[in-house]
Design brief:
Cytochrome Bc1 Complex, Chain D, domain 2; elongated; Immunoglobulin-like; 3-stranded antiparallel beta sheet
Length: about 475
């Protein structure tokens, strides 16, 4: 058998170990994603602009089941990448088999909306306000502080005891202290980073002289559907543009309810408070199947069913909050009188709003491995951390037994972390030191040396073989 060189073996080891890792030296680019020039809406607050370090933390939080009381539910459990960050179920499963009261809204392009409020009933004033409410819900993630649940402070204590969060919060915010404001900022940044602008519609808009002109890449049916979407009733159009203006296709902030007033699991109750909607982009998967049932109660399971609803709005006396754009003179509701060809054309057009990248792009994917573990490697500190000014040499690398830290006399703290963020070594030294690392298992580790006088830090990855 041919002998494999030590260097090749170590490279193989490194490749295996970085599966399911966050490399803080090689972050995904969330800050400067390509946004088409015709997209003009952006509800990102100046106090929480997208930042690669913080958004990376947000990605980990979004997928981490530790954010639920019994470690079974993550944000991503109800907002799945494969379904444009929605749920194929009518109501999502929460803790202990409980179910959410409304369908989980798609999160794609949440940033590009005039409507800054969140939830179907708009009870959250901002995305920052929204992202921690499911965590504090008794049914959803269980840190409610009611019904015998732990409260949000208990979650903070729980996360503070997890080694990789000590690294990630320090990396993102410059210190490892965890609080709700930081969690909100990180989760909101990650959700705002989720975007989809690679659809057939986007390709057509770039080729056409304007939105109203026929798109050269569209079929005649799709162009008819676009015309119906943009044209107002009663002039032969469907008037969808009145509430879902392209090219963002977000919801007008001033809408009332859309005539769907049902409650999941009930045939008698009504709910008039649902006035928000996700963007109409990515209603369907690239294969044309729905990204879960539609409306807050998940009562519609096809695009044609939705189109028929707007074609013939139910005249329900119990609905005292119907949007006036869906009403007609004489206390009547909207009747578009679309024929079958027109309904099919609208369906065909809506399917052109679906992209492809949002379903597979790794920047929005689960960073945990199949066993629920995550490895954090690379620089552990913020890019704004002061430079380590003292001369330092660490050798050998890779190391088998003894690692030498050659440094001038001073006061230092030496810590070594595993890929999973577990602290393996923590001691103080006063100068050059030879450390016996024979007890460490083979793998990749992070060495951190902190100057206790200046608080500056030095960080280095090394391999133990």
């Amino acid at each position: 058998m041919k002998k494999i060189s030590k260097a090749v073996s170590l490279l193989g080891l490194l490749f295996i170990l970085v599966s399911g890792t966050i490399d803080l030296d090689d972050l995904f680019n969330y800050e400067t994603q390509n946004i088409p020039s015709y997209i003009t809406k952006d509800n990102t607050p100046e106090t929480n602009l997208i930042n690669n370090e913080i958004t990376t933390l947000g990605r980990v939080l979004f997928y981490d089941k530790n954010l639920s009381e019994n470690n079974t539910i993550a944000c991503a459990s109800c907002h799945q990448q494969a379904f444009a960050f929605s749920d194929p179920l009518t109501s999502s499963v929460g803790l202990n088999g409980g179910n959410t009261g409304r369908h989980s809204m798609r999160l794609v392009n949440s940033r590009f909306s005039n409507e800054e409020k969140f939830f179907w009933d708009e009870r959250a004033a901002s995305l920052e306000d929204q992202v921690t409410q499911p965590i504090q819900d008794h049914v959803e993630m269980g840190f409610s502080g009611t019904n015998g649940d732990p409260n949000f402070n208990d979650l903070i204590l729980k996360l503070s005891a997890i080694d990789y969060y000590q690294i990630l919060f320090e990396f993102a915010f410059g210190n490892s202290t965890i609080d709700e404001d930081k969690i909100q900022k990180a989760l909101a940044q990650f959700v705002r980073s989720i975007q989809s602008f690679d659809s057939k519609f986007d390709e057509g808009l770039e080729q056409a002289p304007n939105l109203n002109a026929p798109f050269p890449n569209y079929t005649p049916q799709e162009n008819l559907g676009k015309q119906l979407f943009l044209s107002p009733p009663p002039n032969g159009g469907a008037g969808c543009v009145g509430c879902h203006a392209p090219p963002e296709f977000d919801i007008d902030p001033n809408t009332l309810n859309n005539g769907v007033i049902g409650v999941i699991g009930s045939t008698t109750e009504v709910d008039l408070t649902n006035t928000r909607s996700p963007s109409l982009r990515d209603l369907v998967n690239p294969d044309g199947s729905l990204n879960g049932p539609m409306m807050h109660d998940g009562s519609m399971t096809s695009l044609l069913q939705v189109i028929e609803h707007y074609n013939n709005i139910p005249n329900n006396p119990a609905n005292t909050n119907l949007d006036n754009r869906l009403q007609r003179p004489g206390n009547q509701t909207q009747q578009l009188n679309l024929n079958t060809n027109e309904k099919n054309a609208l369906e065909a057009f809506l399917k052109t709003l679906t992209g492809t990248g949002v379903y597979t792009n790794e920047i929005w994917s689960d960073p945990f491995d199949n066993d629920g573990n995550i490895a954090v490697i690379g620089n552990q500190l913020s890019a704004n951390e002061p430079i380590f000014e003292k001369s330092i040499t660490v050798f050998p690398n890779p190391v088998s037994t003894d690692l030498t830290i050659q440094i001038e006399t001073g006061n230092y703290r030496v810590t070594i972390y595993s890929l999973l963020g577990t602290m393996m070594v923590d001691e103080e030294i006063s100068g050059t030191k030879k450390m016996n690392l024979q007890f460490l298992a083979k793998g990749v580790y992070i060495l951190k040396i902190q100057d206790l006088d200046s608080n500056n830090s030095f960080n280095k990855k090394f391999i133990k073989y």
